[in-house]
Sequence to fold (437 residues):
Amino acid sequence: MTAGPEAADPWTLALLPQFLDLTASRQNEIDIERGNLEAGEDPLSAAREIGKIAHKIAGTAASFGFGGLGRQSQRIELICNQICSLSDATRDEAVKTYLLPALDDLSGEMTKALMSAP
Amino acid sequence: MSANMRYLAVDDDPAFHFVLTKMMTQLGYQPPVCAISAVEALKYLSDPQEQFDAILLDIQMPGMDGIEACQHIRAMPHHSETPIMMVTTMNGREFVDQAFAVGATDYLTKPINRIELQARLGMLDRLVKEHANARSLQFAMESMDDVESFGFAFEDAVTLPKCGSLIDYLALENHLLTLSRLKLHAHTALAFQVVGGASLFRRLNRMEFLDCMADVGSAIAACMKRQTFLLAYAGSGEFVCILNRQHPVDMQELEQELSSELMVYDAVYDSLGLPMLEVRIGATVTSGLFSTSAVKTMLGRARASVRGHSGYPMQYMAG
Fold:
């Protein structure tokens, strides 16, 4: 088994279960916030929360060999920061155009990581 | 040394604690003490039973962020010099500048890799050793019966006393290296030199010399306060200031302001039979930075400029 789709230090194998547990719970948290975004419920708060979760994933994913997940999380964090700085009038459109498709990509990367579990 | 070092790691992400602990133990360090928030970290640091040699501090955390935490830590007398390395995914210039301005020693961006972590922890190890030496020298100095043995050379970039707006020269170098790594290049260096600094060094005892340099540092900092800057004492009676290139300095105005600031000390220096403080200002130096050597070159060029060795036409005198 490899730690992830990209090369990672062998020692990460020992920590991989904890990382994947956290990833699974973060995926749930993101799904809940995504639901709020799609329902139009306080998109500012939802984008802020998603940005925070993505920030955490970006900090360690590459260390476990999930460089794609790390990069996509960084992208989400950037999009969320930009969305939070927009006016209410333009935020909804930016969520639809940029954030939701990017969340689809993130979900794909998270699923890929979770499926690598031993 | 590293095996005995005790680190406090502050990060709200448990996954980062796993990674850091594993990497550090593999590098021969003790497992760090992990705090999940700035508030928890401040509790550890306030506890006299807990001793830490260095601190690794995340920036973005719920509640109090790492920048504010760094300010609180620096305000603790027993941690005013403890090395603090920011370890963060935040890679914007504003975060880097803020971190060093509030007293960070170094800045490492996530995701961390073992080789880079090893190099940066090695730097913190050396700094902890230097601080331990400096503390024993400070103790000798404060006892005042052994001032002569409080040894540092004129060229040494020592930490100045009671000079809050200055950072250590090593932190200034690390600030520039961080900007280089993140490809943030909009900055300039400007050097200041105390005229007759070597003569002052010979004439004064070490404590008096440090106080004199602290006076100059405070005067320079007062002149730069309208813009974002970082200032450090570089040794040899010289200071280096890092400025944002987007806010050019009016050199004539700076010279006049510095002259006024230094005049405040004239009466004191006169009463002590010391020459009036006079400071030479070099030309601003810019550089595209990509390496440690390029950072040292930029700082070296700024200092060469103030010494008149670089062919820079513009030099200014204040005092």
